[in-house]
Design a protein that fits this description.
Number of domains: 1
Helix content: under 10%
Radius of gyration: 13 Å
Distance between the termini: 9 Å
Low-confidence stretches: none
Shape: globular
Number of helices: 0
Order of helices and strands: EEEEEEE
CATH topology: Jelly Rolls
CATH class: Mainly Beta
Length: 107
């Protein structure tokens, strides 16, 4: 039987401009689904980048990008081949929103 785990890495955080989510150590997982939900405000028209790290301190882009959500909606991105650490990064410009970022991880 496969194992899975859900990690909420940002909860009710207001973002504007450049931001990165909290990193999460998940090297045991074979795949991850990143969900971003907008509770208030719209980030529609902006994108987030998946970032990876060998140590949780130094980061590089994974090469995967996905759209950020409009108010009251959720967006998702499937990530594989990510090593041990994951986070997302974005520049929303002048757009502001309160979001939840969740990682759903499967072995």
């Amino acid at each position: 039987m496969r194992s899975s785990y859900t990690a909420v890495v940002e909860r009710n955080v207001t973002v504007r401009g450049v931001f990165t989510s909290e990193p999460y150590e998940c090297g045991w997982a074979g795949e991850a689904v990143v969900f971003v939900r907008s509770l208030a405000g719209s980030l529609s028209g902006t994108h987030a980048r998946v970032q990876i790290s060998p140590d949780g301190m130094s980061w590089c882009d994974h090469g995967t990008e996905f759209a950020l959500p409009a108010e009251g909606t959720v967006t998702a991105c499937l990530v594989t081949h990510f090593g041990n650490w994951l986070r997302i990064a974005a520049d929303t410009g002048n757009r502001e929103a309160t979001i939840i970022v969740t990682l759903q991880l499967k072995e």
